[in-house]
Amino acid sequence: MATSHPFGTEDNSSSSSSRETTTTNSLSRFPENRLSECSEEWVDPPSGNLECVACRLGRLLEPVQTPCAHTYFRGYILRSIRDAGRANNERLDGRQMPDHNETEVEELESRFNFASRSSERPRPTMNEDLTWEFRALNVQQTGSEQQQTEIDGLRGVVNELLGICEQKQTEIDEWRGICEQKQTEIDEWRGICEQKETEIDEWRGSCEQKQMEIDGLRGTVNELTGSCEQKQTEIDALRGTVNELTGSCEQKQTEIDGLRGTVNELTGSCEQKQTEIDALRGTVNELTGSCEQKQTEIDGLRGTVNQLTGSCQEEQAEIEGLRGHSNGLE
User: Fold this and answer.
1) pLDDT band (50, 70, 90) for residue 78
2) Where is the composition biased (Low complexity) (predicted)?
3) Is residue 112's pLDDT more than 60?
4) Which of 130, 227, 234, 281 has a 20 to 30 A CA-CA distance from 220?
5) Which residues pair with 21 in a beta bridge?
6) Closest Cα partner for 12 from 20, 21, 3, 4?
């Protein structure tokens, strides 16, 4: 005969062997070694490599982090609650649970996602939620002492989880204080950042003004660059002319050096000729003195000659007179 209970029906005529097949219950899914795992420090595994620490089924498709900082399958947690009172391997969904209607089941599922809960919720509310989640386990099942034992075991697990939750809540409160302190520091830094932003805006305006001045100077530099290039072209042309003149000057210098050698030779020759001229001038001076002396002698002789000439003329006149007288005498 089948008797009804809050989680479904149970066939009292089922054999003990069939009851043994129903031992896959919440206690088997929450053995004692699972409690020690709840006290371990949780470290987020690499993304995409999450694993349910309860059933070890591999990668979590719908990870749910409980207040004890462990992550489980979302469906695994709900199934553990719903299947706590099943009979003959009968799996019940939310619509078959008499304690909840469909809306309450949705609330149950959404509230059990601890990862989405805000840390601002007070500890008593969180504990009450956990108590409410497992309230369905407190059922009266006539003739089912084994399931009641399992429910008591689950209740012990829940109590230990609540203790862990309280410890984690204390840590959360401490971290909340740290967060508030950090928020104060962040606000201070935000004020500093706003002040620096104002200074940056001022510097940006100054930089824009300087940029305008630089643009003006760049235009002037471009003009000067063009002028310098033109001057450089003229300088290059003048450099070519200078090079030509330098070559011509070097050629003229060579000619001048040749003429200087010739002049030096002529100077030496002239000095030699000057020495000869000086010697000749001495000779000429001596000859001039001798000539002057001879001229004086000549002048004296000329006077004597003139006297003799006059005397001769007189004698000639007398001779002519005598010759005429002689002729007359004849």
Assistant:
1) low
2) 9-29
3) no
4) 234
5) none
6) 3
d(CA 24, CA 86): 10
Report which residue type is found at 262.
T
pLDDT tens-place string over residues 2-30: 333 333 333 443 333 333 333 333 333 33
C-alpha to C-alpha distance for 108 and 102, rounded to whole angstroms: 10
Backbone region of residue 56 per phi and psi (left: phi > 0; alpha: psi in -120 to 50; beta: other values): left
Dig out the tokens for 156 from the structure. Answer: 């012990």
CA dist., res. 6 & res. 84, Å (int): 11
Distance of CA 43 to the CA centre of its chain: 37
**Position of tokens 């084994």?**
146
Rounded to the nearest 5 degrees, what angle is found at the Cα of 253, between the Cα atoms of 247 and 254? 95
pLDDT tens for each residue of 138-197: 444 444 677 777 777 787 788 888 888 888 888 999 999 999 999 999 999 999 999 999
pTM, to two decimals: 0.26
DSSP string, 85-144: G--TT----GGG-TT--HHHHHHHHHHT-GGGS-TTS-HHHHHHHHHHHTGGG----TT-
Q: Is 195 exposed, middle or buried (0-12, 13-18, 19+ CB in 10 A)?
A: exposed
C-beta of residue 80 within 8 angstroms of C-beta of residue 26? yes
Rg of the chain in Å (alpha carbons): 73
Structure tokens at 3: 């008797």
Q: Tell how far CA 233 is from the center of its chain.
A: 40
Q: Provide the 8-state DSSP code for 42.
A: P
The closest alpha carbon to 80, from 132, 8, 28, belongs to 28
Burial label for 7, CB within 10 Å (0-12, 13-18, 19+), is: buried
Whose structure tokens read 């760049």? Answer: 218
Q: What is the DSSP letter of 73?
A: E
Sign of the C-alpha dihedral, residues 214, 216, 217, 222?
positive
Residue 160: alpha-carbon gap to chain centroid = 56
